[in-house]
Amino acid sequence: MSLDSPITKPHERLAAALADEMGAVNALIRDRMASEHAPRIPEVTAHLVEAGGKRLRPMLTLATAKMCGYDGPFHIHLAATVEFIHTATLLHDDVVDESNQRRGRPTANLLWDNKSSVLVGDYLFARSFQLMVETGSLRVLDILSNAAATIAEGEVLQLTAAQDLRTTEATYTQVVRGKTAALFAAATEVGGVIAGRSEDEIKALFDYGDALGIAFQIVDDLLDYWGTDATGKNVGDDFRERKLTLPLIKAVAKADDTERAFWKRVIEKGDQRDGDLEHAIELLNRHGALEETRQDALAWAARANTAMASLPKSDLRDMLIDLNDYVVARVS
Amino acid sequence: MSLDSPITKPHERLAAALADEMGAVNALIRDRMASEHAPRIPEVTAHLVEAGGKRLRPMLTLATAKMCGYDGPFHIHLAATVEFIHTATLLHDDVVDESNQRRGRPTANLLWDNKSSVLVGDYLFARSFQLMVETGSLRVLDILSNAAATIAEGEVLQLTAAQDLRTTEATYTQVVRGKTAALFAAATEVGGVIAGRSEDEIKALFDYGDALGIAFQIVDDLLDYWGTDATGKNVGDDFRERKLTLPLIKAVAKADDTERAFWKRVIEKGDQRDGDLEHAIELLNRHGALEETRQDALAWAARANTAMASLPKSDLRDMLIDLNDYVVARVS
């Protein structure tokens, strides 16, 4: 994440262009994460919300609404909605993954307990729906409730596919759509919807968010085998957690009997020894799995750019194209 | 729950009066708990949904909509919504309470795992919002998203109040509104809302559901110290789980120093020995805590009946009054 100097990072330029709106979003988030009766709720939420995530998803909503000429107040509500849904899924993910660290800090389930993470996540989901209701748009509620269902479905699918060497690329794409792309796509789609744009334009915004989300997740999964200090990723996490991500799925598909026995031992049985990660990376390279994964990410990024380029030119539109380029620049 | 013969049980008479509608609700539930991509979801959901709960909450929505003269299709959607929200909270509750049994069967978190319970619960929450969106009523969405927030808030409050001897009756009522009454009240309120009744009538329906829910939960908590085989309750569960329910709160408020030391040991420290439950029940009786709790339940039930009796007379209205009487009959 330090490929270039701060001033040129597209998400920072977006944040600068949307500074006023993001200020309003952050104020709304602080206001709505409060609870009159249960102080544990803002404690847990603040731990996550103030941990300094990049606020990518709310920025997508603000940017798309603004580039579509929206001048009402509700893009702020929708951006906060999207961040609440994201935060709720992070809380539940950490319980499901039994994680101890998130964004370099101890997770809520470690600091409090799994119970608090489950229930505070539920609270944030409910709060996110309250925010949507305030917009008065049934279409927005439809889009975001569908996204919430797709997210949960993708997470369950990921759970049942874990450690299963038969996992296909189609299943992987389905999981990624759920865990990442559904919320990206909803975040960009609702920007066009509240601005009252044409169906073609709304579809283009959806396609941009969907493809950006998939590219984003593929790059993340690729860097788990291909990362360097510069990317800030901890190489081998997915391998140790025995996740069937795209590079692995591609290598398993081309494995000979000896290699298949290796994958069965380390992924299915979870019997991992010194040198196994290095051997896994060697197999991924031998079969061109990392390069193919990289090409897939670039193809999704190209789709995102095609969709966005179909919309009227504006500074924000070009920043969203740059953001997309930046996501894959980490592996270009 | 076997105080009288099956034919006279009010919830069974309600079920008979609403048989067609409940058939439609069950069909809708089966349809919407399906998942194209993640078969784990209907497995887990079917385990709970088909476990033979009394479907009290969806019946409240059907009965109130019908007694208010509603003749559209959406009370079916709302009844399914309410049951989905209830099922989702049960799934999450069992994770939070680390339960092994629910309705006499092993819980989903035991049969599958906590992860599945968390994620399938999330899926059902999302599905419930999709169902609400289909009704096209923003007011209904407002009511039910508020209820969902109150439920989660009540659960968090219960979590942080557990084992805390300073818990007040006001906090207890707040918890009970969250864990039980909020969904009862929303279930009855939306029946009047989709039927387009006056604000006074909608308020009366809300008040009925709210008071019924609180009476229901107080009775449940009372029977945990006062139950017999006939009530089907397992006496002492709350004591062993160190929950500050109403009988205990009342007894602790009147405790002398020796008694306070006892409560500190068994509830705060959780150091429970043979004979402690019997001694606790003796203390509850000594201070009239069980009798006072019973009177509180009766007072809430009276409020529920007053609210319902303010509405136009009909067979369904009278069945709802009978249902409320039946709830407290277990302790009358």
From TrEMBL, chains A, B:
Q: Which Gene3D superfamilies match?
A: Farnesyl Diphosphate Synthase
Reply yes or no: does the keyword RNA-binding apply: no
Coiled-coil intervals: none
Q: Which cofactor does it need?
A: Mg(2+)
User: Which InterPro entries does the record associate with it?
Assistant: Isoprenoid_synthase_dom_sf, Polyprenyl_synt, Polyprenyl_synt_CS
User: Could you tell me which Pfam families the record lists for this protein?
Assistant: polyprenyl_synt (PF00348)
Q: Does the keyword Transferase apply?
A: yes
Keywords per UniProt? Magnesium, Metal-binding, Transferase
Please list every transmembrane segment annotated in the UniProt record, as residue ranges: none
Classification via CDD domains = Trans_IPPS_HT (cd00685)
| Superkingdom of the organism of origin | Bacteria
Family under the similarity heading: Belongs to the FPP/GGPP synthase family.
What is the name attached to this protein's record?
Polyprenyl synthetase family protein
Q: Which organism is it from?
A: Mesobacterium hydrothermale
